[in-house]
């Protein structure tokens, strides 16, 4: 398919937003080069819990975008039903037994939206999903969302890059960090840390938590709410848990080969200290505490062991809503910056590529424009 107004594009960032956008542009006949400062998925995509969902409460446009994102994953899953990196085995969530418990309100909201939701008690949980310790569920109960799932983003990105390469796409990983090159107020390509210059008709910036700082260098504003995140991946452990768990003290996502990925805001806050050189120190005692919290909510309370720990910024815009589309003040310059990169990854790539290729704006992205920050 060759229906693009641009013949070439450069994408900075080989996480899920960058690779997805690049692939969709290549499918439109655009010559695309991805620039990344190392191997693909070496940033936020490599340390994402990657829970595919639109649970709880958020704006209507954000909910619709997330549901479209899940729809694209279902289409992909239908073509790869035997894959070990994409599953739809549901999600289970519950809150603490205190006055902050919002399970009732969340359940009522999801029912109004038509979101597939079932309220269960600890005694009933085994009827909807296996592997959960029933005594861990608080008296207010839990919500089971059968339509939710998970993806292993590094494996998905590798899958998408195969298709990208087959279409003639190019991945550059040996030029160091890249930035958008501008001339006469327009984006004209990419400049790399090693002195390379690559011209392009359009440039997409998809560098995760680095996006706000990079656009600021061009005089643009995107407010930033990025926190430090901690993701612990366990060694393989045979266990019946299949659903993603979002609990008061830990979130757990099953993974390929019997692994589990764990995260929690409190663990990141207590375990991670950023050094003056930009690196991180990790308190292993807190990590062990996170493993213990995971064991408490899993049937049989298994002994889990650390395989790897990922630390870094979790991309979250200052107002919590996605930032997607053209920077109007600089023609040819596009950005993709958002939380929920896994859920949104495929649909954001599709819609952003549509905008780059056609020059038109997609209505699903109407409230997510970068210029909303400069107009405040």
TrEMBL record:
Boundaries of every FAD dependent oxidoreductase domain copy: 10-354
InterPro entries (alphabetical): FAD-dep_OxRdtase, FAD/NAD-bd_sf
Keywords, ordered alphabetically: Oxidoreductase
Record-level Gene Ontology MF annotations: oxidoreductase activity
Entry keyword Transcription regulation: no
Positions in coiled-coil regions: none
PANTHER family: GLYCINE OXIDASE, SARCOSINE DEHYDROGENASE-RELATED
Protein name, per record: D-amino-acid oxidase
GO CC list: cytoplasm
């Amino acid at each position: 398919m060759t229906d693009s107004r641009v013949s070439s594009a450069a994408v900075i960032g080989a996480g899920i937003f960058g690779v997805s956008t690049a692939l969709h542009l290549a499918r439109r006949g655009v010559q695309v080069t991805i620039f990344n400062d190392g191997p693909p998925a070496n940033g936020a995509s490599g340390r994402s819990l990657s829970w595919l969902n639109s649970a709880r409460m958020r704006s209507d446009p954000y909910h619709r975008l997330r549901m479209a994102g899940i729809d694209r994953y279902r289409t992909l899953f239908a073509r790869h039903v035997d894959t070990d990196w994409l599953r739809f085995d549901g999600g289970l969530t519950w809150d603490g037994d205190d006055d902050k418990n919002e399970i009732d309100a969340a359940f009522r909201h999801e029912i109004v939206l038509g979101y597939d939701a079932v309220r269960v008690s600890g005694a009933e949980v085994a009827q909807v999903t296996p592997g959960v310790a029933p005594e861990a569920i608080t008296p207010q109960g839990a919500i089971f969302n059968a339509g939710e799932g998970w993806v292993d983003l590094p494996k998905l990105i590798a899958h998408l890059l195969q298709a990208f390469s087959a279409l003639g796409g190019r991945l550059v990983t040996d030029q160091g960090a890249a930035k958008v090159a501008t001339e006469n107020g327009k984006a004209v390509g990419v400049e790399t840390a090693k002195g390379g210059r690559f011209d392009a008709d359009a440039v997409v910036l998809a560098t995760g938590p680095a996006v706000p700082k990079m656009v600021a260098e061009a005089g643009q504003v995107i407010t930033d709410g990025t926190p430090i995140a901690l993701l612990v991946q366990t060694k393989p452990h045979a266990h019946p848990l299949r659903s993603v768990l979002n609990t008061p003290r830990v979130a757990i996502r099953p993974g390929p080969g019997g692994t589990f990925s764990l995260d929690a805001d409190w663990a990141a806050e207590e375990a991670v200290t950023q050094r003056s050189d930009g690196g991180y120190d990790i308190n292993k005692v807190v990590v062990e505490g996170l493993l213990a919290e995971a064991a408490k909510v899993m049937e049989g309370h298994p002994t889990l062991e650390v395989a790897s720990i990922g630390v870094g910024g979790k991309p979250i815009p200052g107002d919590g809503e996605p930032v997607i589309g053209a920077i109007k003040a600089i023609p040819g310059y596009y950005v993709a910056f958002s939380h929920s990169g896994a859920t949104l990854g495929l649909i954001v790539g599709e819609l952003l590529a549509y905008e780059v290729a056609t020059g038109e704006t997609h209505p699903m992205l109407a409230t997510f424009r970068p210029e909303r920050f400069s107009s405040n």
